[in-house]
């Protein structure tokens, strides 16, 4: 499949985002340029092409982030602030995962919740 305007624009939005972005964030940035179906179709396509990956947040929405190339072999570690709802992609730290040998693991996602440093400052004052 070739590049389309929708594919190019959605990939650019995700790659330039400071934090993993959800559908609403993408929709806000594209406005009425693309339908809901087109946006979701492009997200599925980009994920199949291993250019982005998705993971569920605390609210049950999916967040999207750019693949660095090793998402399948290294656990993804994220932190979601319960105050501002921002999701942070944390630097990869070794995460021990104990899975029985008869399971074939493709990805591991870790989502930790709490208060981010910015919101913590406001809560302390």
UniProtKB/TrEMBL annotation:
Keywords: Iron, Metal-binding, Zinc. The keyword Nuclease does not apply. Binds 1 zinc ion per subunit. Binds 1 Mn(2+) or Fe(2+) ion per subunit. Its cofactor is Zn(2+); Mn(2+); Fe(2+). The keyword Iron applies. Zn(2+) binds at residues 81, 84, 116, 119. InterPro entries: FUR, WH-like_DNA-bd_sf, WH_DNA-bd_sf. Pfam families: FUR. One of its GO terms (molecular function) is DNA-binding transcription factor activity. Fe cation binds at residue 96. This is Fur family ferric uptake transcriptional regulator. It comes from Algoriphagus iocasae.
């Amino acid at each position: 499949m070739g590049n389309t305007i929708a594919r190019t624009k959605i990939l650019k939005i995700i790659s330039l985002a400071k934090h993993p972005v959800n559908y609403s964030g993408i929709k806000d940035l594209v406005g009425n340029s693309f339908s809901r179906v087109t946006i979701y179709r492009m997200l599925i396509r980009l994920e199949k092409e291993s250019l982005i990956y998705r993971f569920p947040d605390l609210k049950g929405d999916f967040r999207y982030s750019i693949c660095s190339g090793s998402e399948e072999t290294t656990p993804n570690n994220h932190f979601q602030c319960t105050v501002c709802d921002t999701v942070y992609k944390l630097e990869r730290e070794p995460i021990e995962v104990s899975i029985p040998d008869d399971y074939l693991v493709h990805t591991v996602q870790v989502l930790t919740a709490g208060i981010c440093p910015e919101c913590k400052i406001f809560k302390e004052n």
